[in-house]
Design a protein that fits this description.
It is built from 9 helices and 5 strands. It is an alpha+beta fold. The chain folds into 2 domains: about 5-95, 5' to 3' exonuclease, C-terminal subdomain (DNA polymerase, domain 1, Orthogonal Bundle); about 100-215, Cytidine Deaminase, domain 2 (3-Layer(aba) Sandwich), CATH 3.40.140.10. A 5-stranded mixed beta sheet has the order 2-1-3-4-5, with helices on both faces. Helix 2 (about 25-35) crosses helix 3 and helix 6 packs antiparallel against helix 7. About 25% of the residues are buried.
Length: about 220
């Protein structure tokens, strides 16, 4: 059945205008974003097929390549899906409005939407002033955390330049498990030594997982 064969009052856009977005199913909302189906299936059926393969939580981790493997989803439709997902992430970030760090949970709520879903490790430094307000946030490196990749010079150069009072180190574990590896612990110890010499406080080091985090400070490792 084509979308035009569906009674007007049962079409997604008409239902949204009459009942509001909250009344629509996930497939109907996705259908409005995709706009059109294929020659063999309408846009609602196509949306149901996408969601049967990737539910909403898995959809946020999909790449263009993965989505294009679904029959009926090409570069345009995969781009539409990824664009709306990214927009939702940015809306959530805007709502969080975290500018001051009081505890490890603040860091998690700030950084998890940004790096928790990534499939590659990303190492971020947060620079804080004397009142723990965030001065700057910057990605220092990408890739598996090790002493070669993360050099103290790169970590503290930015802190010195911005006259930061303290720093927080943050990186993600693509596996979703935030428990620190031996390398994580070794790199942190090395950075603690340098922070003591430079008199720039290492406030914490957080490892971000899918739904939780590990704080070196909370666990007595800093």
């Amino acid at each position: 059945m084509k979308i035009h064969d569906i009674l007007p009052e049962n079409r997604p856009i008409e239902r949204l205008n009459k009942l509001g977005a909250g009344a629509l199913s996930d497939a109907e909302l996705l259908a409005i974003i995709l706009r059109t189906g294929t020659k063999t299936e309408n846009v609602i059926d196509l949306s149901n097929k996408v969601l049967s393969l990737y539910n909403l939580s898995k959809l946020t981790d999909c790449s263009t390549t993965e989505l294009k493997q679904i029959k009926g989803i090409g570069i345009t439709k995969s781009s539409q899906i990824l664009s709306i997902i990214e927009l939702c992430k940015r809306i959530n970030l805007a709502k969080s409005n975290i500018t001051k760090i009081t505890c490890a949970k603040d860091v998690f709520e700030l950084m998890q939407p940004k790096i928790g879903h990534l499939k590659q490790e990303v190492f971020v430094v947060l620079l804080l002033d004397s009142k723990n307000n965030i001065i700057k946030e910057e990605i220092i490196a990408k890739g598996t955390l090790n002493s070669t990749l993360i050099h103290p010079r790169e970590v503290f150069k930015l802190a010195i330049k911005e006259s930061a009072n303290s720093i927080i180190l943050v990186h993600n574990h693509p596996s979703g498990d935030p428990i620190p590896s031996t390398q994580d612990i070794e790199v942190t110890k090395k950075l603690i030594e340098v922070s003591d010499k430079l008199d720039i406080d290492l406030f914490d080091h957080l490892i971000i997982g899918k739904e939780t985090f590990f704080s070196f400070e909370d666990n007595g490792l800093i």
